[in-house]
UniProtKB/TrEMBL annotation, chain A:
<protein>
    <recommendedName>
        <fullName>ER membrane protein complex subunit 3</fullName>
    </recommendedName>
</protein>
<feature type="transmembrane region" description="Helical">
    <location>
        <begin position="124"/>
        <end position="148"/>
    </location>
</feature>
<dbReference type="Pfam" id="PF01956">
    <property type="entry name" value="EMC3_TMCO1"/>
</dbReference>
<comment type="similarity">
    <text>Belongs to the EMC3 family.</text>
</comment>
<comment type="function">
    <text>The EMC seems to be required for efficient folding of proteins in the endoplasmic reticulum (ER).</text>
</comment>
<keyword id="KW-0812">Transmembrane</keyword>
<dbReference type="GO" id="GO:0034975">
    <property type="term" value="P:protein folding in endoplasmic reticulum"/>
</dbReference>
<feature type="transmembrane region" description="Helical">
    <location>
        <begin position="13"/>
        <end position="37"/>
    </location>
</feature>
<dbReference type="InterPro" id="IPR008568">
    <property type="entry name" value="EMC3"/>
</dbReference>
UniProtKB/TrEMBL annotation, chain B:
<dbReference type="InterPro" id="IPR039856">
    <property type="entry name" value="EMC2-like"/>
</dbReference>
<comment type="function">
    <text>Part of the endoplasmic reticulum membrane protein complex (EMC) that enables the energy-independent insertion into endoplasmic reticulum membranes of newly synthesized membrane proteins.</text>
</comment>
<comment type="subunit">
    <text>Component of the ER membrane protein complex (EMC).</text>
</comment>
<dbReference type="GO" id="GO:0072546">
    <property type="term" value="C:EMC complex"/>
</dbReference>
<feature type="repeat" description="TPR">
    <location>
        <begin position="155"/>
        <end position="188"/>
    </location>
</feature>
<protein>
    <recommendedName>
        <fullName>ER membrane protein complex subunit 2</fullName>
    </recommendedName>
</protein>
<comment type="similarity">
    <text>Belongs to the EMC2 family.</text>
</comment>
<keyword id="KW-0472">Membrane</keyword>
<dbReference type="InterPro" id="IPR011990">
    <property type="entry name" value="TPR-like_helical_dom_sf"/>
</dbReference>
Length: 252, 311
């Protein structure tokens, strides 16, 4: 028979519940702060939209020029080839030198990095503060006994900060309770209707680098020229050829 | 339970109306009914529906209130939305504000609101519409063209430009604009119908039975053939579009057919056109009377009064 530790019931009111409440409140607060600090959706500059829309128009012409007759098709083909080979619809000037730009001088990359940093700081600062708080006031506390048995493997998880190799695993130390809360509060946030709070905590572990505009993306002039080539190669066939006999065949 | 389902269905119906913007084509009476329906729905259910849906429906209610002259209620909806989303953070809210100002007669204020940022293209498009009421239609057309230069694949603007050209009688330009639309939406049968109509108008202007020159007559015949082909394409996509059947019928009955038959029957292209027209006349008359319920005798007598299909 193992010996039972006697836990002061006051521990529950002064340690266990305060830690949980503080964690929940800080999580909610942090999600509100994240929402406040995150920049709104950015507007695309109109020149960029103009470029994509013109390209779209050209692509649509290529895909469904069969709704035009031969003369209209040819005049439009000439128009598109001329415009696609000029720089009229480019959103920005094409630089001639091939040296890739330093990605960190690009403002959009900097914005992405900045917002990532803000998110990270909002994660780390409050969590370290709470951890320091727990460590300072409740160091070496055993705060509760779990109502179910566990294997020894959980010892390092549930009894960190308490140097007692022979203590039953069911006893939980204060700092471990903090960690259990940190990882297990998602259902609580869900109940409180705040899905944001947890998703940001989780995002912290699986954060990816923002897409830094490297030299990989094809340049607009190449895309335009490719589209012009495609338009040159169009083999035109009008839907209006023989349409009358088609309809007559169906309805008579 | 039955009540629950009907609330859900009603909500879906209203949201669909809101997303599709179909209320812009309602009769005044329908609008008023819809307005009452939305107001009732919101006053009962505003606490129980999802916030996104709530604000979408509030926006719908705003538009309907403006259209049905409920100024006070439209202001209330607008205030609710601006309280939630701020005055100048969203283009959508700014558009609502400008519509309210315009409805109140403050055009200058509305323009000022829309004029801020060239990147806010939705606002620019709305700004373009302010020149619509000016006495000079060319000004409106210039504005539309300017906007189309910035947004070359904005279909609504192309359609609007086509309407303007059609009103001014620039049918070829109208056709050009409409062709932009069918290139992006190759199955837009109503646009094919509109193109056919514009060709028909063009034919009506170009041709008179007194025309003597051969190439003039053949050119008119060609225009009319294009009109017919576009109506036929409409039919290929949507068989029940009765207006297009009527268009085909009119084309095949047009006086130029008689001229062609009298003088140019030996021309092989024209001979083919005439024989196709003869067959199409019967088919289209039958189809149109089937679809519209008008019998053929009435159709013939009506057509002798006015020989243009409706827009």
């Amino acid at each position: 028979m193992e010996e039972e530790l006697v836990l002061d019931p006051q521990l529950k009111y002064w340690v266990l519940i305060p830690i949980s409440v503080v964690m929940v409140l800080v999580g909610l607060l942090r999600s509100s702060f994240t929402a406040l600090l995150s920049p709104g959706p950015k507007k695309t500059p109109y020149k960029k939209i103009r470029e994509t829309q013109f390209l779209r128009r050209a692509e649509c012409f290529r895909a469904s020029n069969n709704v035009l007759d031969v003369n209209q098709m040819e005049s439009r083909r000439n128009y598109f080839i001329e415009k696609l080979n000029s720089s009229e619809y480019y959103s920005e000037k094409i630089s001639t030198d091939d040296t890739p730009k330093n990605p960190f001088t690009d403002s959009s990359t900097n914005d992405a990095l900045m917002s990532m940093m803000k998110g990270n700081l909002l994660n780390y600062i409050p969590q370290s503060l709470i951890m320091a708080w727990v460590n300072f006031f409740f160091a070496d506390f055993i705060v509760m006994k779990l109502p179910f048995p566990l294997t020894d493997g959980f010892k390092s998880m549930l009894q960190s900060g308490v140097a007692t190799p022979d203590l039953n695993v069911r006893y939980v130390s204060a700092i471990s309770w903090y960690f259990v809360n940190l990882l297990g509060l998602k259902p609580i946030y869900n109940l409180l209707g705040d899905n944001e709070a947890m998703s940001t905590i989780l995002a912290q572990s699986q954060q990816t680098m923002p897409n830094i505009g490297g030299p990989g993306a094809p340049k607009v002039d190449k895309i335009f020229q490719g589209c012009a080539e495609n338009i040159k190669l169009i083999k035109h066939e009008s839907i209006f050829d023989g349409i009358a006999s088609r309809v007559i065949d169906v309805y008579s | 339970m039955a009540h629950e389902i009907s609330t859900e269905a009603l909500k879906d119906k209203l949201l669909n109306i809101s997303y599709s913007g179909v209320y812009a084509q309602f009769h005044p009476e329908q609008l008023l009914d819809l307005y009452n329906e939305v107001s009732n729905f919101l006053s009962i259910n505003s606490d129980s529906i999802d916030v996104t849906e709530l604000f979408n429906l509030t926006e719908l209610r705003f538009y309907l209130a403006i259209l049905t002259h409920h100024d006070v209620d439209s202001k209330a909806c607008l205030d609710r939305l601006t309280d939630q989303f701020g005055r100048d953070r969203s283009q959508r809210i700014k558009i609502l504000q400008s519509i309210y100002l315009e409805a109140m007669g403050d055009n200058e204020g509305a323009k000022l609101l829309l004029n801020g940022d060239p990147d806010e293209l939705d606002l620019s498009r709305r700004l373009v519409t302010f020149s619509r009421n000016s006495s000079d239609p060319e000004e409106y057309i210039a504005c539309l063209k300017f906007y189309l230069d910035v947004q070359p694949s904005d279909l609504i603007t192309w359609a609007e430009l086509a309407d303007q050209y059609q009103q001014l009688g620039h049918y070829e330009r109208a056709i050009f604009c409409l062709q932009e639309i069918i290139q992006q939406e190759p199955f837009a049968y109503n646009i094919f119908y509109k193109i056919g109509l514009n060709y028909y108008y063009l034919y009506c202007r170009e041709f008179s039975p007194k025309l003597e020159k051969k190439d003039k007559v053949l050119e008119s015949a060609n225009i009319l053939r294009k009109a017919r082909d576009h109506f036929l394409r409409t039919i290929e996509i949507c068989e029940t579009y009765s207006k297009a059947w009527l268009g085909i019928y009119l084309v095949t009955k047009a006086p130029i057919n008689d001229v062609l038959r009298a003088k140019y029957k030996d021309n092989s292209a024209m001979g083919q056109l005439l024989s196709e027209n003869d067959k199409l006349r019967e088919v289209s008359a039958k189809k149109f009377t089937d679809l519209s319920g008008i019998d053929e005798a009435t159709l013939k007598s009506d057509l002798s009064v006015s020989a243009t299909p409706s827009a």
